[in-house]
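Before the break, one more example. Copy the sequence into your notebook; we will annotate it together after we see the structure.
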Amino acid sequence: MPVVKRTKRRKKIRYTKLTLKLSSRQKKSLENYCTARKTTPTKLIKKMIHRFINGFDKQVPEELTVSEKQLELF
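Here is what the structure looks like once it is written out:
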């Protein structure tokens, strides 16, 4: 009998809920924009913040950290 290889199970992704307050005018504007681009507000928001939330899970890059000397200037 041939040996059957078992595939590894994927690690379950855990999501966190995030709330955001918009005025009624902002909400209507967001909905109109999404309708015109044939997308959803969730997909649009995730796409827009993608570059800010990816790559910072472990540590902040050196170019974004503030040195002690810089604080003395102000």
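Residues 24-55 form one domain. The mean pLDDT is 83. Try to locate both features in your own notes.
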